[in-house]
């Protein structure tokens, strides 16, 4: 077997988690792109007619919050988070993997906590009909969507910890 064939076999096939996180990240990118287009349009309208898109800042706030949480699971599954290896530079690979697994599980715990509290806040915002000030956009649904993405992030962090556990020494 050629070296190229061996390398292809070693790469695991993407699972459902990989597909979902990638799709969600693309959605987040499209959301940010649409927010950027809307801001550009609003600035152009302000420049031309002294009046921009009403409530543009509300839409940008909601889109940004949703997009950020849409990116986090993909970043985690691709191991794209920032890490500092100052103290572990000369430690064995098994130790570094174990440490990374530990931090993945800590991250999962915090994502679970954030998701739980966001869900409580989203349900409360929906039941109290909380909305944005200018456009009266109901914000509870966005908070609920973000809470689900945080819960997905917790699942992805546990998945990445398990994948590190299966890595060869």
Which residues sit in consecutive blocks of at least 5 with pLDDT less than 50? 1-11
Q: Round the mean pLDDT to the nearest integer and report it.
A: 89
Cα radius of gyration in angstroms: 21 Å
What oligomeric state is this?
A: single chain
Count the strands? 0
Largest sheet: none
Helix content: over 70%
Which H/E pattern describes the elements? HHHHH
- SS-derived structural category: mainly alpha
Distance separating the two termini: 23 Å
The proportion of strand residues reads: under 5%
Topology:
Elements: H1 3-10, H2 16-49, H3 56-77, H4 93-127, H5 140-166
Helix pairs in contact: 2-3, 3-5, 4-5
Describe this structure in words.
The protein is mainly alpha-helical and 169 residues long. It is built from five helices and no strands. Helix 2 packs antiparallel against helix 3, helix 3 runs parallel beside helix 5 and helix 4 packs antiparallel against helix 5. The longest helix is centred in the middle third of the chain and has 35 residues. It is elongated.
In short:
With 169 residues, the protein is mainly alpha-helical. Helices cover 75% and strands 0% of the residues.
Key words describing this protein structure:
mainly alpha; elongated; disordered N terminus; 169 residues
């Amino acid at each position: 077997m050629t070296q190229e064939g061996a390398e292809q076999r070693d790469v695991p096939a993407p699972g459902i988690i990989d597909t979902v996180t990638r799709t969600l990240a693309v959605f987040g990118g499209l959301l940010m792109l649409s927010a950027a287009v809307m801001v550009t349009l609003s600035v152009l309208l302000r420049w031309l007619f002294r009046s921009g898109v009403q409530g543009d800042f509300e839409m940008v706030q909601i889109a940004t919050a949703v997009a950020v949480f849409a990116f986090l699971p993909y970043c985690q599954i691709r191991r794209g988070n920032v890490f500092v290896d100052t103290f572990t530079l000369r430690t064995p690979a098994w130790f570094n993997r174990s440490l990374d697994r530990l931090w993945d599980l800590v991250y999962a715990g915090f994502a679970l906590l954030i998701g739980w509290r966001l869900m409580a806040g989203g349900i409360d915002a929906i039941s109290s009909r909380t909305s944005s000030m200018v456009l009266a956009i109901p914000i509870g649904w966005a908070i609920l969507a973000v809470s689900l993405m945080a819960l997905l992030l917790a699942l992805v962090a546990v998945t990445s910890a398990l994948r590190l556990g299966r890595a060869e020494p």
